[in-house]
Amino acid sequence: MPKVSIITPLYNGSKTLTETAESVLAQDFRDWEWIFFDDGSTDNTAEIAGKLAEADPARIKLFMHEGGANHGTAYTRNRAFEKSQGEIIAFIDQDDIWYGNRLSHQLKILDSNPACAMVWSPALYWYADRTFVQPVGYRGGGLEPGVYDPPSFIRIFLSDLKGTPLPSGSLLRRSAFGNVKGYEESIRGSEDIVLWLKIARDYPVYFDNEVLIKYRKHHDSTLRVAKRSGKMDEWDLVFYRWVGDFLRNSNAEKTLIDENDFAYYRTLKRVVGRENYFNSRKLLLKKLREYPDLGSKFTCDYLLDLALPFDLASKVSAKIRFDILGRN
User: Fold this and answer.
1) C-alpha–C-alpha distance, residues 106 and 110, integer Å
2) Cβ contacts of 222-229, under 8 Å, gap ≥ 24
3) What does DSSP say about strands 32-38 and 4-10: parallel, antiparallel, or unpaired?
4) pLDDT tens, position by position, 252-284
5) What backbone torsions phi and psi does residue 171 show, to the nearest 5 degrees?
6) Rounded distance between C-alpha atoms, residue 139 and residue 38, angstroms
7) Cα(135)–Cα(14) distance, rounded to whole angstroms?
8) 147 and 92 in one domain?
9) How far apart are the first and last CA of the chain?
């Protein structure tokens, strides 16, 4: 049985998968298996993964959904987990790059901190024309390396979603992943953040500040495509509702709940704002009535949205919240 199971969901990643594979095969730690799970690719991604599996069948395996269906990243990662055997789970996306000591370095940390369920490191954000290290910490203010007991990371992660762990830069104990029931399959686009929140609620987590991965930022990534199409806003509505329920069930501080609810309301306005004036206000009211706790909280905002264009109403609301009421 391998110590580490590497999991990679695949979807139309033929342009980058070979380079990603080279970085995995070059690891100085070798006791691993690699589970590819194709999520309905329409290019030759599965063919590339298949050739890698043929070259090392004892360690590399390729699976596909029945009928070549597409189920999304969360569902696909969970199915890949079910096929895996290692006591430690490592993820790498089809377009990211690991430095040669990525596994060995983080495994030493986990072995030295048996109470920790997870270790993560910041990524090097890698654009075609520039790079920079991922900002981490409360509102990007930085983090000291070490163990963070629950639930301290919940507040930190929610203060800046861009500063949450990336799958390719995280190692997770198999037992912890199973205990929190893995990825929430109803979530798309922010499924990683949901997993980290569940882990941070229940387990100590180790942050290490050594950069060990390159996180490729490119025009054809799943999230970029979803943002351009407007689909990401619809996914975010599901995410913010999940986070709201999670925070309330976790007895989180009121400020976190309020900030998340406000993010839901802003996103809801972007989604319904695609309709004309009358239909957008009608849809906004309908959605608020579906969640009475939010409806009562944003009554004043809704009245502003009835009287003003959404953009102007948001500016007036922000003025009231921050300048008059002094909220931050």
Assistant:
1) 6
2) 222/11, 222/73, 222/189, 223/189, 226/188, 226/189
3) parallel
4) 999 999 999 999 999 999 999 999 999 999 999
5) -115, 140
6) 35
7) 29
8) yes
9) 51
Cα gap 103→197, rounded to integer Å: 23
The domain tally of the chain equals 2
Among the listed residues 180, 173, 179, the one whose alpha carbon sits nearest the alpha carbon of residue 114: 173
Q: How far apart are CA 320 and CA 300, in angstroms?
A: 11
Phi and psi at 170, nearest 5°, equal -130, 145
Residue 159 CA neighbour count, 13 Å, CB half: 14
Question: What are the tens digits of pLDDT across the range 284-323?
Answer: 999 888 888 888 889 889 999 999 999 999 888 887 876 6
Q: pTM for the full model?
A: 0.92
Which tokens go with 279?
Answer: 């239909």
Containing structural domain, residue 255: 227-324
SS (H, E, C) 191-234: HHHHHHHHHHHHCCEEECCCCCEEEECCCCCHHHHHHHHCHHHH
Same domain, 120 and 139: yes
* The pLDDT of residue 2 is above 90: yes
